[in-house]
Amino acid sequence: MELSLAFIHAALRDEYPTAMLEEVSGVSPRLTAATVLSEESAGTAMLLFVDLLSDRVPAGLGRIAVLTSASRADRLAGCDLIVLPDGADLVHALDAVNGLFTRFNRWSDEILRAIAAREDLQRIVDLTVPLVGNPLYIADMSFRMLASHADVLDEVDAVWRYHHAYRYLPYNVMKTLIDTGELDELNASNPARIFDPPRAFPQPQVCRAIGEEDNRLGFIFVLGLNSRVGIRECAIADFLGDALALVLREDTGYLAMGRFYHAHFLEEVIEGNLTDEKVIADQIRALGWDLKGDFQVFVLDAADDDDAVRHQLLAYLTALGSRCFVHDACIVALFGEVGKRGDLHAKLGEVVSSFNRYGALSERFERFMDLRLCYRQAEFALSCAERDQERARLRSYDESFLDHLSVRIGGLEPPCIPIARLKAYDDEHGTELCRTLYVWLRCKCNTIATAELLYVHRNTINYRIERIHEIVDFDVDEPDAYLRLLIALHTMLARE
């Protein structure tokens, strides 16, 4: 691997802080090894010569790279120099430089072998991290983190915590990149550039764009968290960028592509992975969402739909004013300011009817942080709608609450003697008094509504209720008794 004279100078400054770099033209020569300066060194490029001569200087050296001491620098005019203080052990410095070449040659060979074998990008990162001592990651053009060695990011800053945990940059950072023009500078970072200070990111960094100018495929980032980033990090990023660019000419799939969209953000919230309220608030603000509360979540079954139908459903729900996306074979739609949208339930009822699908609505909620809870509500209500196909295709969580309560109780509910007695009567006489009482209670003791649901005359309902009163003693005017009967009946009928 070729190392620039500036790179070697930066490495030596770890041990010799006052070491100086003197380049003839300002362009740092690239070198492959270090050796001792001699009469045969004249005109030899690609080598760093260490000046171990006692007093004389070979004639006609020309422009070569020399490591020397301060008192002899004037005698080497016309050479590119690294100048160490007088008294420095130049033999030790020669060993250090050769150790540097050995280390980086070994690393570059390992990288090239790994890329030739199409080992994954994480392997490339793992091989590189010991050389940089700073967090390093590779991203695609959407800034999706494809491989990283940056566990410390979780403890540093909310931006890096989000990026490392969810692989995507927060949208507010993406927006700042675009608004400040820093995105164009990142795309132009070939060769690698130092961004210090950056405008969108929280820490200084080195960035190297991967691919040709008209076909950028990704980025390499080294973050200046543990130490200041500089020439060394640029050289490492450039080598990686060049090596990856070569293989990507033949295999663009090697650097997996992705894209940022708001669905990812909402998915992380409903899955409970993203709980940082500040990051969530920043995302909402950057996305330009004017979410003022009064939310409701709608979930629609789309497991058997192809992409064309799903896109049609997404377009329809977006037109109704929702933020919607596909998740776990369902379409999830988030509505805000539900109270101002007219009869949302009726509109969504038309959707499920028109597309012959099952759907469910959560309770209304005010805090965006309750999105996950209410998504789970709608998800459960959808499972009830699909299971109980005799009822409406659109189901609310309110209508499914007793089902949810029964599931959570899990058979541990206390026995209800009146209902057990009524069930025994039904079994003995072939009647449906339990079902009649359940529907009657669900209809708030409205005889006409109960008769319509059971497809019988209202006088039949009146007769059955009177018969129930004869068999068991109950008082529906007492809230506790009413609720106990309703839960007991619901649990029993659900098991049947």
Question: What this model shows, in words?
Answer:
With 496 residues, the protein is of the alpha+beta class. It has 18 helices and 17 strands. A five-stranded mixed sheet has the order 2-7-6-5-4, covered by helices on one side. Helix 2 runs antiparallel to helix 3, helix 15 packs across helix 17 and helix 15 crosses helix 18. The longest helix has 27 residues. The termini are far apart.
Write the layout of secondary structure elements.
Layout: E1 3-4, H1 5-12, E2 20-22, E3 30-31, E4 33-36, E5 47-50, E6 65-69, E7 80-84, H2 90-116, H3 121-132, E8 136-140, E9 145-149, H4 158-166, H5 171-180, H6 182-187, E10 193-195, E11 205-212, E12 215-223, H7 231-248, H8 262-270, H9 277-286, E13 296-301, H10 307-319, E14 323-327, E15 330-335, H11 344-355, E16 359-361, H12 371-387, E17 394-396, H13 397-409, H14 417-429, H15 433-442, H16 447-454, H17 458-471, H18 479-495
Parallel strand pairs: 4-5, 5-6, 6-7, 16-17
Antiparallel strand pairs: 1-3, 2-7, 8-9, 8-12, 10-11, 11-12, 13-15, 13-16, 14-15
Helix pairs in contact: 2-3, 2-7, 5-9, 12-13, 13-18, 15-16, 15-17, 15-18, 16-17
